[in-house]
C-alpha cells in the first residue's frame, strides 16, 4: 500500500473550533432550529397575536407535504372560533395601475385610524415570479415596517383553485391573530378575480384615467363584481382626466342590474402616490358595511361563500386525486393522443379513464 501522505484521498483533520465559540450554546442553537413548534403552540401563538407563529402556520398551510396537511387543518380548526371578526377587501387592477402603491397608502391610512391590516395575494403566476407583493417591497416600505400590518405574498401552486384555497385558509389565521382588515390583492388577469371575489366582503377595482375610452378593454364581469371603482393617479395633469373618467364610470355602472346587496357601486378618485383621496375610499367601504350589516346581506354572503368553498375544495381534491392516480397518469397521455387524432371520441375516452379510476 502506498503512503497516504501524498494521496489526494487523504483527509486532513478538521479545524478545531476556536475557543471563543461555546460548544454548548452552539448545540443549543442547533437543537432549537430543529424543534418545530407543536400545533398547540402555534395556535396559542396566533391567538396571542404573534406574527412569527402566524407565518409558520401559514407555511404549513402552503406546504405540499402531506404530513403538514393534518397539522394545518388542526390549526385552522383551532383558530376558526376566533376568526370572522373582520372586513375582507379584494383589490384588483391591471399591472401598473398602482395596486402596490395604493395598498401601501391605504394600509398605512388604516393602521393610522387604529386598524390591524393583513395583506395577502392571489397570484397563481407567482410560482414563476416568486410573489408579486414582496417583490416590490420598496412600494410598501412603510407598511412592511408597520407593527399593525402583516404582509404575505401569494402562495404558489399549480392551480388557481389550490392557491385560492390556501389564501382563504390564511384569512382565517390572520383574523384569529387579531387582524381586522384583510386586503387581498390580485392581478387583473385570468380567473383570479372571480376567486378573490368569492372570498371577500367588498371588491375594489383600481383604474387609471385613459384618453376618454375608459370602458374599453375592461371585462364586463369585473365591472359587475366591483363595489367601488377607484381611479388612481389623480394627481398633476391627470386630475381633470380622472374626474371625467369618474363621470363616465358612474354612468356605466348605472346600466348594470341592481346588486343583491342593495348597494349602488360608487366611483371615486385618489392619488396613491400623493396619498390623497385615500380616506374617501375607506368612507365608501364603511358606508357599504353599514348597509349590508343592517340588511343582513353581510352574513348571508359569508355563509354562501363558506358553502361555495367547501364545494370548491371537494372539486379541487377530487380532481387532484384523479390526476395523480398512477394508472390514470400513465394512460392519460395515450388517450390524449387518441382523442386528438379522432381514434376515440372525447366522451368515450373520458368514460374509459373514469372507469379505470373507479376500478
Ligand atoms: N403619478 C402617480 N403614479 C403612481 C400612482 N400610484 C402608482 N404610481 C406609479 O405607477 C407605477 C406602478 O405602480 P405599482 O404600485 O407598482 O402598480 P401595480 O398595480 O402594483 O403593478 P403590478 O405589481 O405590476 O401589477 C409606479 O411607477 C408607481 O410609482 C399615483 O397615484 N400617481
Ligand atoms: Mg404590484
UniProtKB/TrEMBL annotation:
GO molecular function, one term: GTPase activity
Keywords: Hydrolase
Region (Disordered): 1-20
CDD domains per the UniProt record, alphabetical: MMAA-like
InterPro entries referenced in this protein's UniProt entry, alphabetically: GTPase_ArgK (IPR005129), P-loop_NTPase (IPR027417)
Source organism superkingdom: Bacteria
Record EC number: 3.6.5.-
Cellular component aspect of the GO annotation: cytoplasm
Enzyme class: hydrolase
NCBIfam families, per the entry: lao, PRK09435.1
Family of this protein: Belongs to the SIMIBI class G3E GTPase family. ArgK/MeaB subfamily.
Protein name: Methylmalonyl Co-A mutase-associated GTPase MeaB
The organism of origin for this protein: Flavobacterium capsici
Amino acid at each position: 500500500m502506498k503512503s497516504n501522505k501524498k494521496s489526494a484521498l487523504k483527509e486532513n483533520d478538521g479545524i478545531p473550533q476556536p475557543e471563543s465559540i461555546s460548544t454548548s450554546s452552539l448545540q443549543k442553537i442547533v437543537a432549537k432550529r430543529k424543534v418545530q413548534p407543536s400545533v398547540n403552540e402555534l395556535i396559542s401563538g396566533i391567538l396571542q397575536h404573534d406574527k412569527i407563529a402566524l407565518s409558520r402556520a401559514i407555511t404549513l398551510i402552503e406546504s405540499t407535504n402531506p404530513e403538514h396537511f393534518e397539522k394545518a387543518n388542526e390549526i385552522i380548526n383551532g383558530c376558526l372560533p376566533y376568526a370572522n371578526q373582520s372586513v375582507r377587501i379584494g383589490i384588483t387592477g391591471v399591472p401598473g395601475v398602482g395596486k402596490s402603491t395604493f395598498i401601501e397608502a391605504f394600509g398605512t391610512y388604516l393602521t393610522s385610524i387604529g386598524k390591524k391590516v393583513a395583506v395577502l395575494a392571489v397570484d397563481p403566476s407567482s410560482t414563476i415570479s416568486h410573489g408579486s407583493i414582496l417583490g416590490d417591497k420598496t412600494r410598501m416600505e412603510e407598511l412592511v415596517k408597520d407593527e399593525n400590518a402583516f404582509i404575505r405574498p401569494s402562495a404558489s401552486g399549480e392551480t388557481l383553485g389550490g392557491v385560492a384555497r390556501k389564501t382563504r385558509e390564511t384569512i382565517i389565521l390572520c383574523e384569529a391573530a387579531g387582524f381586522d382588515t384583510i386586503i387581498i390583492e390580485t392581478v387583473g388577469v385570468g380567473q383570479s378575480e372571480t376567486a378573490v371575489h368569492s372570498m371577500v366582503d367588498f371588491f375594489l377595482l383600481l383604474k387609471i384615467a385613459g384618453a376618454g375610452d375608459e370602458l374599453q378593454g375592461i371585462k364586463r364581469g369585473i365591472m359587475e363584481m366591483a363595489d367601488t371603482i377607484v381611479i388612481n393617479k389623480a394627481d398633476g395633469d391627470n386630475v381633470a382626466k380622472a374626474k371625467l373618467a369618474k363621470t363616465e364610470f358612474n354612468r356605466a355602472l348605472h346600466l348594470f342590474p341592481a346588486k343583491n346587496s342593495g348597494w349602488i357601486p360608487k366611483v371615486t378618485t385618489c392619488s396613491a402616490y400623493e396619498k390623497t383621496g385615500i380616506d374617501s375610499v375607506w368612507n365608501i367601504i364603511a358606508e357599504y358595511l353599514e348597509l349590508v350589516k343592517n340588511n343582513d346581506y353581510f352574513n348571508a354572503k359569508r355563509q354562501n361563500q363558506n358553502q361555495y368553498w367547501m364545494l370548491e375544495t371537494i372539486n379541487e381534491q377530487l380532481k387532484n386525486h384523479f390526476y395523480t392516480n398512477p394508472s390514470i397518469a400513465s394512460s392519460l397521455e395515450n388517450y390524449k393522443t387518441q382523442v386528438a387524432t379522432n381514434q376515440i371520441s372525447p366522451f368515450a375516452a373520458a368514460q374509459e379513464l373514469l372507469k379505470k379510476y373507479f376500478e
